[in-house]
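Good morning,

Attaching, inline, the backbone tokens for the sequence recovery test we're adding to the shared suite. The designed sequence is right after.
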């Protein structure tokens, strides 16, 4: 058995190395990267950039290009940093959370006829693979306070066809995992945590994303931390599957048991019931570097967000028509990816649509993002009856149309944060006064 190897630079010392290598980057390209990541204009900016260029171009005769641009030591370093941060050993860096979900769904051998329970309110990514393979989506109603999947409704909707439950820690607020894990155990169901918003959240002393059978975090540019715009971390607690996930990420490529006279083999990845054929969710060294750089700041980022959330929650205490974001406790530590603002329409004298309009007018833009998945045309076109499903998700209908919106809590100045709190309080007061 040869040592584990790769396409690039695997020949060692030789006169003419065999290497399938693409075009390298040069100093001009590097300058464009700097110009892209550090944008600006004006004479001072131009002068500073020119000074950088004078130095950067000196690198050309001195520097060599990296040996690898994909799935190399930087990706491994990012995974090691995630492992240390999460307290797991299985972090696998994939193109995005959606690609991570796909590996978990394939592991479960999800196919037409199987049922998957997802929360009624989440992002389309949660249900994309089940929809694609024709599995049946079963929408669990949400808890009216957290807007996370309600375990009691999950219990009601389990059948003997339920293969997976996919709790989503929406906004970075941990789902109540204990009852879900208990149900899953009783019914032999695989739990996939959609932890897209929840890198660093804690549930009863455990990092979110290390509780279910699988979890995927997102490092897309809009999440708390990013790996240059796209990225995802997949973890598993399935014994023995952690190493297999590396091959599940890259087409089943197997360098440990090559075919005679061939560099590698393609071997099936063993899922729970059956072997499966993986796709390609490989990540780049640049993404690996980007993720490692940001992980070290994650606690700081969460703390900044928590402070902003606490400020808003404290301010909103003055009006009991406002149901502020829960800030957590010893057992529940959110990431505060989004601030969940709710109102009680009876006390506020109007619903959230009225409030959103008023906030818009005051310059606090409100964009509906996470809503009932069963309202999408793609779901309806696949034969789902939106109105029937809505009847089985009364909390979802009520909170989405009448009660909640999300406020931003990062990157705002103190002044903006204060203005936003003032705008919410003033708008609700106007509604109460019948204006
Ligand atoms: C962003 C998001 C995803 C998808 O993450 P990607 O990394 O972009 O694939 C999944 N679920 C939720 C709830 C999200 O907000």
């Amino acid at each position: 058995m040869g040592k584990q190897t790769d396409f690039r630079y695997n020949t060692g010392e030789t006169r003419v190395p065999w290497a399938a290598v693409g075009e390298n980057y040069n100093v001009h390209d590097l300058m464009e990267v700097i110009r892209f990541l550090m944008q600006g204009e004006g004479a001072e900016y131009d002068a500073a950039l020119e000074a950088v260029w004078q130095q950067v171009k000196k690198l050309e005769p001195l520097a060599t290009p990296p040996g690898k641009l994909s799935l190399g030591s930087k990706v491994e370093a990012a995974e090691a940093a995630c492992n240390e941060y999460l307290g797991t050993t299985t972090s696998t860096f994939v193109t995005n959370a959606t690609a991570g979900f796909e590996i978990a769904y394939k592991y479960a051998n999800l196919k037409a006829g199987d049922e998957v329970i997802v929360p009624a309110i989440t992002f389309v990514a949660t249900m994309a693979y089940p929809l694609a393979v024709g599995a049946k989506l079963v929408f669990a109603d949400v808890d009216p306070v957290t807007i996370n999947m309600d375990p009691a409704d999950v219990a009601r909707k389990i059948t003997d066809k339920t293969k997976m439950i996919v709790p989503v820690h929406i906004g970075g607020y941990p789902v109540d995992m204990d009852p879900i894990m208990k149900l899953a155990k009783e019914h032999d169901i695989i739990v996939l945590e959609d932890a897209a918003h929840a890198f660093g959240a804690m549930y009863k002393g455990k990092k979110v994303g290390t509780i279910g059978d699988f979890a995927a975090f997102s490092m897309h540019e809009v999440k708390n931390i990013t790996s240059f715009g796209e990225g995802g971390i997949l973890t598993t607690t399935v014994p023995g599957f952690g190493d297999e996930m590396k091959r599940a990420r890259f087409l089943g490529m197997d360098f440990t048991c090559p075919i005679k006279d061939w560099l590698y083999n393609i071997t099936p990845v063993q899922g729970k019931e059956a072997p499966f054929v993986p796709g390609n969710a490989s990540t780049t060294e640049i993404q690996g570097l980007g993720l490692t750089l940001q992980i070290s700041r994650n606690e700081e980022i969460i703390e900044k967000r928590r402070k902003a959330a606490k400020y808003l929650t404290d301010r909103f205490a003055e009006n009991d028509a406002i149901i502020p974001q829960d800030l957590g406790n010893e057992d529940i530590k959110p990431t505060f990816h989004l601030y969940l603002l709710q109102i009680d329409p009876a006390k506020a004298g109007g619903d959230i649509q009225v409030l959103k309009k008023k906030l818009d007018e005051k310059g606090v833009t409100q964009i509906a993002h996470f809503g009932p998945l069963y309202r999408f045309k793609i779901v309806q076109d696949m034969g789902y009856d939106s109105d029937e499903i809505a009847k089985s998700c009364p909390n979802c209908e009520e909170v989405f149309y009448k009660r909640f919106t999300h406020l931003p809590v990062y990157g705002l100045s103190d002044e903006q944060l204060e203005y936003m709190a003032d705008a919410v309080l003033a708008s609700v007061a106007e509604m109460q006064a019948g204006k």
